[in-house]
Amino acid sequence: MDLINVVFPRMAGLRIMKVLAKGASVRVYAQTSSVTAACPQCATPSRRVHSRYERRLLDTAIAGQETVLHLRVRRFFCTAGDCVRKIFVEQVDGLTVRWARISVVARTLLEAVALALGGRAGARLARRLGLGVGRMTLIRAIRALPLPVVSVVSVLGVDDFALRRGHRYGTVLVDMATHQVIDVLDDRSADSLAAWLREHPGVEIVCRDRAGCYADGAAAGAPAAVQVADRWHLLKNLSDAVYKAVAGHRRCLQPLPPAPAVAPGPTPQVEPPTVGTPLARRTRIRHAEVHALWEQGLGIYSIASRLGLDPRRCAATPMPPTPNS
Ligand SMILES: [Zn+2]
How far, in Å, is the centroid of ligand 1 from the Cα of 8? Predict the structure, then answer.
């Protein structure tokens, strides 16, 4: 099997003229080899060549080097008399699309990078992958992606989010069965939620916070749906209420009496274990030292200070009840 067809299947239909190394990039000069091209408007094949020109396409890296494809393509006359398209440019399946300056495969890769990292970080990674594009190219790639099709949602989660905190808020809609965000509304008004619900019938339960606008919107857009308060907002409201109640009785709280001073005893000598890995033996020794000092009545911070340990490591050691209690 031809090496080009296996390694570069999208170039299989091209005639490779030359390959050059130019600085840190690879330049592939190629031209199309088919006799005819189909009109994108009416699909009529045409042989009548209008003109030729060179397209420059950024492709996926070859051996880690940026790869630019200089592709010579043809403009054709459309021979169908009733077609509105008189002239069209041939495209190479799997390699080019109209007006694009990035190959189809490279664009798919950049879309994945952009979705994972966003613009600025994505551009840094893309450069390391041999795809030197700017952050706005990645942002535009995300914006050009088709939106996922929303199927019937039976349990809909509705909540607001800040576009600019304190000034502008939007609404996020979640399919509570899959926990996937399915749509975003520009504002948090009853009208926009009601309009969305009318366009997407089938919602049986609306799970929302206690904002009045969402109650009104759900009632107007899906009057048969049951409205429930979601668990997160219930717990948050409970937490806020408890905090407010306790804070109001702060003066009722008595300060703790000072802890009795304990005279420091000698650091206990622990019999070293003889089995296990060195790390396991050291851990057992440390564990025994901590517990011996605890039984002498020392607190966590005193033990940590005596043994030169981080207090959190002492606290992570399971402690028996203090002997003084
Ligand atoms: Zn046509």
Answer: 30
Token pair for residue 293?
């000092």
Q: Characterize the bridge pairing of strands 168-175 and 180-185.
A: antiparallel
What CA–CA distance (Å, rounded) separates 85 from 42?
8
- Which is nearest to 322 in space by CA: 294, 291, 286? 294
107 phi, psi to nearest 5 deg: -65, -40
Q: How far is the CA of 56 from the centre of ligand 1 (A)?
A: 25
- Residue 103 one-letter amino acid: S
The rounded Å distance from CA 39 to ligand 1 centre is 5
Which has more pLDDT, 83 or 11? 83
In this structure, what DSSP letter does residue 10 have? G
316/25 Cα distance (integer angstroms): 54
Contact 171, 184 (CB under 8 A): yes
Q: How far apart are the first and last CA of the chain?
A: 82
Query: 65: CA distance to ligand 1 center in Å?
Result: 39
Domain ranges of the chain: 3-144, 155-233, 264-325
Measured in Å, residue 81 CA sits from the centre of ligand 1 at 8
What is the token pair recorded at 15?
Answer: 């005639």
* DSSP H or E segment with residue 17: strand 14-22
- Identify the CATH assignment for 155-233 out of 2.60.40.1120, 3.30.420.10, 3.30.70.1450, 3.40.50.10860: 3.30.420.10
Query: What pLDDT does 53 receive?
Result: 95
Residue 83 CA to ligand 1 centre (angstroms): 5
Instruction: Calculate how far, in angstroms, residue 46's C-alpha sits from the geometric centre of ligand 1.
Output: 9
pLDDT tens figures, 16-66: 999 999 888 999 999 998 899 999 999 999 999 999 999 999 999 988 899
Strands 14-22 and 25-32: antiparallel
* Beta carbons of 38 and 45 less than 8 angstroms apart: yes
